[in-house]
Amino acid sequence: MVPRYLIDFKMQDLEKLNTEVIIIGSGIAGLYTALKTAEHSDVTLICKEGLLESNTRYAQGGIAAVITEKDSIALHRQDTLIAGAGLCSHEAVDVLVNEGPEGVYELIRYGTVFDKEGNQLALTKEGAHSERRILHANGDSTGAEIVRALSREVRENPRIHILEHHFAIDLVTKDGECRGVIVLTPLGKRLYIDAKATVLAAGGAGQLYRYTTNPEVATGDGIAMAYRAGALIKDVEFIQFHPTSLCYPGAPRFLISEAVRGEGAVLRNINGERFMEKYHPGLELAPRDIVARAIVSEMEQNESTFVYLDITHESEDLIKHRFPTIYQVCLQYGLNMVTDWIPVAPAAHYMMGGVKTGLWGETSVARLFACGEVSCTGVHGANRLASNSLSEAIVFGKRIAQRIKQLTPIKQPIESLSFSIMREKEMKEEETLVERLKLQKLMVRQVGLKRDKMRLEKALKELEKDSKHFRKLLKGHKEFEYLNMLTCAMLSAKAALLREESRGGHYRDDFPERDDEIWRKHILHSIEEGIKEEMFV
To answer: Where would I find the Fumarate reductase/succinate dehydrogenase flavoprotein-like C-terminal domain in this sequence (predicted)?
Structure first.
């Protein structure tokens, strides 16, 4: 049983800070929303690590938007809906494709330098896109360039107060409203920050899996916090595994961008045979879920732990110019993209679901908003279209800022709130690390790319056994992270067991077909009401 708060507290005992708007997270969603919100309100930006550390920083491929006459809003809309496998919100997709282009130009005004060919913005194509509409920066370092530009603007903005190395433990609610957040400071003190609005931009949950393209910070904190605060959690059975992460002894599971396939790379099995024609007419540029499962099938058939990505037929100049970061990382491990096939395997990459929001980023809890990967706007449906995530963050970040502007301040601060349950012994950091690794391995084996009833039931049994840790005394942020991961793992496994079909980022060996008649609907989690289903509209 997940308790309402991870810690026992008395409000009168906490050090207090007041602000107008709290934003939790410093990826593109947090930084961009902070800048737009600071146009009318004072903002406190909470960063778990340094300002520059987020999932965005590692985004390679780029940002999708319609900016040429050859392309069209209608095509981008159609591509997004097809990739989403029948579960995208049409309204949310319309917002994304129509407002995305202006968001890209705003990033440029904030100082982001996208690559150009002559005087025109350079565009590439990625899987399931019908046109070249992906803007990129420094070849394959798009996220790092966006974070560089936005973080500089944030640091220079006098209305934004940055709290680095502060961990948001829990959202504080009263009478159905979010009133602020309890934070762990770098010195281990607990601080309560009060605000008229709180924005979750805390990123995804890739660290649920042993093999992930996500950095250490992606532990599902925002989703777990929102769940405990009473917000609805939606579609978390849909987890995108990126088909191609580096799989080589001694190397991290480094992302090999989909743009490499967009520029002509092909996939070969361990025997050197190109295989995607067996699985989809789109070949290497089929939707990500199809490519990832095809790779796993080839690995299983040939008893291998990887397949190869081959771009050796392209020129050395193109490879070095277009993929400088990937080229250099591979070179560190003795792999030369110009002459070598690169060993790759799927890795957890992106969670399509998250905190349910409306078209203005509002959650089911008043004064609480969610933006970026932590949210579920409905844009991605069951399978995110490549490079739509960065677009989503800026489009809905701007909308959240506009909605917050309309909020009235809270007149009465919270004075006497408290929470306490029977806590057992303290949870040690060494114990936390062991439990975290155990959870990650369990998720790979039982709630991974291919699932079935037996494995999912086994996973839930193990996860529910580990819920005893919720009754322990917690002190450091590693313990809080682990319990957030445990919460997200349980939510994902429950939804995956309930959905008896295969769709997008959710594949069941025992129910391999998509079933629109029964399962064209969403699964919602509520801490107060349990699991419920929402019909697709």
So the answer is: 436-526
What is the token pair recorded at 297?
């099938």
Beta bridge partners of 162: 45
End-to-end CA separation in angstroms for the chain = 32
Q: Which residues pair with 362 in a beta bridge?
A: 369
| Residues 127 and 213 both lie in one domain | yes
- The boundaries of the domain holding residue 70 are 14-238+352-405
CA distances from 339 to 266, 327, 476 (A): 14, 11, 47
Q: Is residue 413 part of a domain?
A: no
376 neighbors 356 (Cβ within 8 angstroms): yes
Q: Is residue 22 part of a domain?
A: yes
Tens digit of each residue's pLDDT, the chain (537 residues): 899 999 999 999 999 999 999 999 999 999 999 999 999 999 999 999 999 888 777 777 789 999 999 999 999 999 999 999 999 999 999 999 999 999 999 999 999 999 999 999 999 888 788 899 999 998 778 888 999 999 999 999 999 999 999 999 999 999 999 999 999 999 999 999 999 999 999 999 999 999 998 989 999 999 999 999 999 999 999 999 999 999 999 888 888 988 899 889 999 999 999 999 999 999 998 878 889 999 999 999 999 999 999 999 999 999 999 899 999 999 999 999 999 999 999 999 999 999 999 999 999 999 999 999 999 999 999 999 989 999 999 999 999 999 999 999 988 888 789 999 888 888 888 899 999 999 999 999 999 999 999 999 999 999 999 999 999 999 899 999 999 999 999 999 999 999 999 999 999 999 999 999 999 999 999 999 999 999 887
Domain check: are 512 and 367 in the same one? no
SS3 353: coil
